[in-house]
Amino acid sequence: MSKDRRLLEARQIAEEVFQSAAHVRRLAGGLVHFVYLATTLDGLRRVIVKIRGDTYARLPSLACERGTIEREVAALRLLSSIPDLQGRVPNLLYADTLGRHMVATEVGVAGFSLARTIMTRGVMPAGIAQSIGSLLGLIHSATDEFISGAGEEPFFERELRLKLLYQKLPGLDGLVASTRVGPRAFVFGDCSPKNIMLCAEGNVGFVDFDNAHFGSRLLEIGYAAAHILLHGGAVGASLGELHSDFLAGYQCYRPLPEDALFAAAIGGALLYRLKNAVIPYQCGLRAPEKTRWASALVLALSCPQRLSTAGLLRLLRAPTEDSRE
Fold first, then answer.
1. What is the DSSP-derived secondary structure letter of residue 262?
2. What does 243-277 look like in DSSP terms, one character per residue?
3. How far apart are CA 199 and CA 45, in angstroms?
């Protein structure tokens, strides 16, 4: 389908929701789906239209997994019952029965994710790590009752485990084994800056729940913490302060996992991002620093009996940061 036809489809979907004419433009994000911002002609209503294609929107060589829209719809319906999340996650307005498209409310300002803010301004916004930890902890705490102990392991979580095992590092082997036992809880599935929006009063919101599933919260917390460190390191922020702030926010709602496993989850997520050649991750970290980080992570994850979050941070810190602390 051509870009013009896809844009026309998005406009038709939005106008059905608005019951009036609409302006539609494609957003810069949307790796997997085609994502559009639609507004009424008077500018008073704004919604997000998401359309699933047969291939990734930004990587047409990769086939798009069917069921992604249905998964996000189910997640947003579950989260809609939690009052404290109003305005912090999208509110579902419409979903077609075939799982091809959906319409939801805007969170923050569409197109201006935390990733874009960091890349354009060259700084990590003050207090952002604590806000991320707080919202993630709130979601985990509010969905504790939705525990699943049955069903197949989600495809993308299974793939992440395989990528971790592929590294052949003892620390990651132990991490994978630990996440295969116990009940599965609701997780966001992709808590990274590209899916985090800046909201009013220093708060953040989460978008793109197409990876939401019942899985390992240990992997989720480590994944979120890893991305904060990765983007913070790229702009010279204090890794120690960012990590402490994230923990402070999360612990307002939920206890932290055992430290060595938490460190392994952070290290594994970082290696996954630094070494992913299929979908290179854009974080702004320069090539020499990527190499230094990867070497430090391999060293730390090779000795699981000595693994800790504090030790991991010491290895990742730049020499200039060590001199400041």
1. H
2. HHHHHHHHHTTSPPPPHHHHHHHHHHHHHHHHT-S
3. 17
Residue range 277-299, pLDDT digits in tens: 767 788 888 899 999 999 999 99
Distance (Å) of CA 45 to CA 23, 88, 92, 176: 11, 17, 14, 45
CA angle 288, 285, 161 (to 5 degrees): 100
Band (pLDDT 50/70/90 cuts) for residue 1 is low
Distance CA(266)–CA(269), nearest Å, equals: 5
Q: Three-state SS for 150? A: coil
Q: Express each pLDDT in 95-134 by its tens digit.
A: 999 999 999 999 998 778 999 999 899 999 999 999 999 9
Contact 71, 213 (CB under 8 A): yes
Separation CA 114–CA 132 (nearest Å):
10
Q: How far apart are CA 99 and CA 25, in angstroms?
A: 22
| Residue 146: strand pairing partners | none
C-alpha distances in angstroms, 323 versus 193, 289, 320?
A: 28, 17, 5
- Identify the H or E element spanning 126: none
Q: What is the pTM of this model?
A: 0.92
**Tokens standing for residue 294:** 């990867």
Calculate what percentage of the chain has a pLDDT beyond 90.
66
Task: State whether residue 234 is helix, strand or coil.
Answer: helix
